[in-house]
Each structure stands twice: as C-alpha cells, then as structure tokens.
Amino acid sequence: MKVAISGKGGVGKTTLTAVLAYLLAKDGYRVTAIDCDSSINLPSALGVKDRVTPLSELEDVIKERVYGPLGTYKLNPKVDDIFEEYSVKNDDGVRVLVLGTIEKGGEGCFCPENAFLRAILRHAIFKEKDVLLLDMEAGIEHLGRGTAKGVDILIAVIEPGSRAVETLKRIEKLASDIGIERIAVVVNKFVESEKARELVEEIEHPLLGIIPYDQCFVMADLENKPPYRVCRLDPFIEIKENLMRMIS
Ligand SMILES: Nc1ncnc2c1ncn2[C@@H]1O[C@H](COP(=O)(O)OP(=O)(O)O)[C@@H](O)[C@H]1O
Ligand SMILES: [Mg+2]
User: Which end of the chain is more exposed for a tag (fewer CB within 10 A), N or C?
Assistant: First the structure.
C-alpha cells in the first residue's frame, strides 16, 4: 500500500504521517515513511535524532542506477535496496527516508533525481504487509507526469478556512498530474463552528476524518517529541481505519 499525504505548509501533513506510521507499525505493518518536503521535519516527528542522509545527496548512486549507456535513462533502475540501506529505523521499527531537495526544472523535468524518485515510487516491490507513506509538500507539480503512478491514494490535508476549497482544487490537479487517481480528505485543526461544519459538508471527496485543534501537537512539536507519545490519538485511529477500509 502506498499513500501520499499532501497539503499546504503547516496544515499538519508531517503530524499525520508520523502518527499513521506509528499506528500502522503497531498493527504489524512494515512501514516506510519518506519525507519529500523540502523543510525536513518528518524524522524528528518520528523520534529520529540522527541525521538521515537525503536521497538527493546520493549523486553517485543515483547516476549509477539511473543512467544507462551513452547518457540514456534506464527504464527500470534497481532501487529496492535503497530502502534498507539509506533509511534510519525509529524505536517502533518505522523506516525513515528523506528525499532532499530535488531540482525544480519545470514540469516533468528529466533530472536524474526525478527519475530516481519515480523509480522508487513505481518499482519498489511491496509485500502485502508493507506500507509506504510519503509526506509531500503541496508544490510538487514539478515532479512531472506519472511520477507517483502506483500510489494508491493521496490524502489531502486541509484546515477549515476560506481557502480550503481552493487548496483542494490544487491538490486534485497535482494528483492527476503525477498520476494518482484516488483522493481522500483529512480535516485538521478543526474548531467547532457552523461555518466550519458547512465547509466540511462541501467536500466532495471521501472524508477520512476530522482532527480537532489540540494544543498538545504544538507543544509536542516545540519540545521535539513525537506527537503519538504525548497526544490523544482517537481521531487518528479512526482515520487509519477508514483508510484501510478504503484501500482494501
Ligand atoms: N490538530 C492540531 N492541532 C493543533 N496543532 C496542530 C495540529 N496538527 C498539527 N499541529 C501543529 O501545526 C504545526 C504544523 O504541523 P506539521 O505537521 O508540521 O505541518 P506540515 O507538515 O503540513 O507543514 C506543528 O506545530 C504541529 O504541531
Ligand atoms: Mg511537514
């Protein structure tokens, strides 16, 4: 199962990715979480203190895997071992990887890093009990067509606000550009009000769940503690269950 988590900066993508990784690992899944956001913070949300080498820094490995003879690109670069070799395991057995900054060379740029990422997303062999979670920033359209083919679902994280619908539209476009067909929504930092409820009603995609605004997450972030160690997880458990139901 491959899941991409997207949304505007600060909506709670990393928080959701970290908590889902934790809950799924507890359920016995082998979880791999990749930070694809340029402001790297997934490792710390997952309690990883050591620096995780960004994949984009592996220039030699990328070149060796991606380039064929005479500067051509290999269609199916071998990338399976990357997950073991360049990940750091956290206390719950979640493998954490960092993508790093990849070239923003226009839509569908054929940079080696992109070919590498595409290979990772497409060809990584996953067994039934394997889960890949991608923490993705919203502005990743430059990845190009088909990058994320093979990703089962994109979770759009939104905050209830006047720009939420607009954001959703953008995420829909992103999903179709990079080849993800299914979208589900998580509403985060929800504060009860009539307007906020109306907004939730307007969402046309399946709703995985609503996470209330909870100061605990802010504190966890400030104290550099994984949110799942200190905060209430009920809404996340429901989201995880809805997600599994949707995908199976
Ligand atoms: N439900 C919530 N209630 C309150 N604060 C939250 C909630 N979810 C996330 N946050 C806080 O919002 C900030 C941004 O969250 P983060 O997960 O880093 O967002 P993103 O990865 O989308 O940029 C962090 O300080 C985080 O602790
Ligand atoms: Mg983040």
Answer: C
